[in-house]
Design brief:
mainly alpha, 3 helices
Length: 89
């Protein structure tokens, strides 16, 4: 089995996600720990996408739910960073 097309697909998906994430937060997060947490959440999402690409997308719906929760965590991290910057609502 030739894995080259699969590797390209996974790499392309990872790049697309990275571009989307950078578009949502163009300046990055101000606190290095929040940035590290956001990077870890994005890496986890990328790994789940990789597993879906190799093994099929569903995993009983749990993979998709995990991605949703990680994206929710990314949103909360960004809000926490805004509080750190003094932008309190």
């Amino acid at each position: 089995m030739n894995l080259q097309p699969l590797k390209l697909l996974v790499l392309g998906a990872a790049c697309a996600v990275a571009v989307g994430a950078s578009a949502a937060e163009p300046y990055g997060l101000s606190h290095p720990n929040f940035q590290a947490a956001e990077d870890a959440a994005q890496a986890a999402i990328n790994h789940i996408h990789g597993a879906q690409n190799v093994n099929g997308p569903t995993f009983g719906g749990h993979a998709g739910r995990a991605i949703e929760l990680l994206q929710q965590a990314q949103s909360e991290i960004a809000i926490a960073d805004q509080f750190h910057q003094g932008r309190r609502w």
